[in-house]
Design a protein that fits this description.
29 strands; six-stranded mixed β-sheet; 30% helix; alpha+beta; six-stranded antiparallel β-sheet
């Protein structure tokens, strides 16, 4: 501490234009301060700083750290408290650029594994960013001293030591997150793909806010009696709600009655949520993938023949490539790519689907005969996927009753209240038989694995490092190419996108050899994340504090959307 104080005093006297000499470790009474990276000027990205506290000094009970998921939940709780206290105790911006800004990479409504707060066997490490204060190129050492010796100690003391924390809140945070994680692992045993607890608040405040709609206006979820089940959670005991079984489930109803709201909650159920979010009791199988049409995306060597074949002029589709896919072609590729990486549940909303991919009614079939139509619509594959491949589907459908004939369960949303209309649907199917014909001409086959080729990844200029950077939650800049992830609706945090960008760098450096398949590559990355956490993705000379763990599905999706990527199919052994 004295060393840091002396350096700041020296800077103030001499009118330094750089903080560079602050790089290093400093010892305070209850924690260590490590300055890993010092910004070049107040307009550059802020300095990277770590606060390291011995775990025994924090007084945090071992019960909050008993297993990986409880450690993750406790770390998430501490990061949120830390963030609130930066607002409470920080003097805010002062000087130019990012001067005086103190921040930690806290999450929103989801609880993700992050690198901003790391709890190990013997210490807690908070990784934060500090905008060292300056006026232009002139160091403001006086305000820097205030940050390090007045504001930061208050933030650390009030955020990382049990004597200043609400133990009840920590316990609730850890218990709620642990219950979600345990239930998710049990869904398969119960024959379910999703569970929505009674009294859940599914609507959000607005299209730009993921916080729950206020209780006085939101309608709590109540399961239909016929679909209601009871599950016993480790910490909360028995709870009741709607279980969605494996198979084909339709969500129907009029416009603005909550169909897409229910599906959105289910698609976000692959993540755990904080207490008070309203969706703590909404849990979905971890490998569920939201599928949509994605006009204009590039596709490389994807076998879309189960859905699109017999193109004009004899063009084959078992290794299809294009730089500008149509809606139906992109939706077919998205499904095949999801199956290639591994999924047990597809989530589809007709509002974001290609109509001609989803269904062709009998009148259209009469006019455009199958021999002239390359598309085998999804309606004719969905039962086959369920019965022969074990891949379930949940579809929001408001415009085509033809899907009634292929559904196992039909839930109608009426004023945001679900009603089981399965029996009514069976009667309708009986009374109004469809005249459309199934257009499948061959059995569904699993797509062959594809192998990324090293030459398909852009190389840096000679002597320069590989530049892969998350520009936002939805875009990654890979050298001079932008990867558009805006259609990845289950990507919820920009820090996950940074994790994907780091995954690409790691894969290019160590995994992509022209022999490993894409599925093998993302599985290896997932194995590293399971063992080491998101820190495994750090490719810098110091630990990063702004990465959150991405799912393997989104990592693979980024590779698939890298324009110019080159793939070859893995040859199948001859039988």
């Amino acid at each position: 501490m004295e060393k840091l104080k002396a350096r700041l005093q020296s800077m103030e006297r001499k009118g330094y234009s750089s903080y560079k000499q602050l790089h290093g470790s400093y010892f305070f009474s209850s924690y260590n301060l490590v300055i890993d990276h010092v910004q070049s000027d107040p307009f550059a990205p802020p300095s990277a700083v770590r606060i390291i506290v011995p775990l025994e000094k924090t007084g945090i009970p071992s019960g909050y750290l008993a297993n990986k998921i409880r450690r993750t939940a406790t770390a998430d709780f501490l990061s949120r408290v830390f963030s609130r206290n930066t607002v409470k105790y920080s003097g805010g911006t002062r000087g130019t650029g990012n001067s005086g800004d103190i921040r930690i990479d806290v999450g929103a409504q989801e609880v993700l594994e992050r690198t901003c707060m790391v709890i190990s066997e013997n210490r807690i490490e908070a990784r934060i960013h500090i905008g060292l204060p300056a006026f232009g190129r002139r160091v403001n050492a006086k305000d820097a001293a205030s940050i390090f010796f007045d504001e930061l100690p208050k933030i650390v003391e009030s955020s990382l030591f049990i004597r200043h924390l609400d133990e009840g809140e920590i316990a609730r945070h850890a218990d709620v997150v642990e219950d979600q994680e345990i239930l998710r692992t049990q869904l398969g045993e119960k024959g379910l793909v999703a569970f929505i607890e009674n009294a859940s608040i599914l609507p959000r405040q607005s299209g730009i806010s993921d916080k729950p709609m206020p209780g006085e206006t939101a309608i709590p979820f109540t399961s239909p009696v016929s679909m209601e089940i009871e599950v016993t959670l480790k910490n909360r005991g028995p709870v009741r709600g709607m279980g969605i079984p494996s198979g084909v489930t339709l969500i129907v109803g009029g416009g603005y009655h909550g169909k897409s709201t229910l599906l959105k909650a289910i698609e976000r159920g692959v993540y755990n949520h904080i207490p008070g979010d309203g969706r703590e009791g909404v849990v979905t199988v971890i490998d569920a993938v939201k599928i949509r049409a994605e006009d204009g995306r590039s596709i490389e060597c994807v076998d879309i023949s189960p859905f699109i074949s017999n193109l004009p002029f004899g063009r084959e589709t078992d290794a299809f490539s294009t730089d500008n896919a149509s809606g139906s072609t992109s939706q077919a590729a998205n499904i095949i790519e999801a199956i290639e990486i591994g999924t047990s549940l597809l989530l589809i909303d007709e509002d974001t689907s290609a109509t001609n991919f989803m269904v062709r009614d009998e009148r259209m079939q009469a006019l455009v005969v199958k021999e002239k139509e390359p598309i085998t619509p999804f309606i004719d594959r969905v039962r086959e996927l369920s019965e022969k491949s074990g891949i379930s589907t949940i579809i929001v459908m408001g415009g085509s009753g033809d899907y009634f004939s292929v559904a196992d369960n039909v839930v109608m949303m009426d004023g945001f209240r679900p009603i089981d209309v399965g029996d009514r649907v069976k009667a309708i199917v009986s009374d109004f038989p469809s005249g459309r014909k199934n257009e499948v001409t061959f059995a569904f086959r699993y797509p062959p694995d594809r192998i990324p080729q090293p030459e398909g990844f852009p190389s840096p200029r000679r002597g320069k490092p590989l530049k892969v950077q998350a520009k936002s939650r939805t875009h990654i800049r890979y050298e001079n190419i932008t990867i558009d992830l805006s259609s990845m609706e289950q990507l919820v945090d920009e820090s996950q996108t940074r994790g994907i960008a780091s995954s690409l760098v790691f894969a290019v450096r160590t995994l992509v050899d022209g022999k490993k398949t894409l599925a093998e590559t993302v599985r290896e990355i997932e194995g590293l994340l399971d063992r080491w956490g998101p820190d495994a993705l750090c490719v810098a000379e110091y630990p990063w504090g702004d990465i959150a763990r991405p799912r393997k599905n989104e990592i693979a999706a980024a590779v698939n959307r890298l324009r110019g990527i080159r793939m070859r199919r893995q040859l199948m052994p001859e039988s």
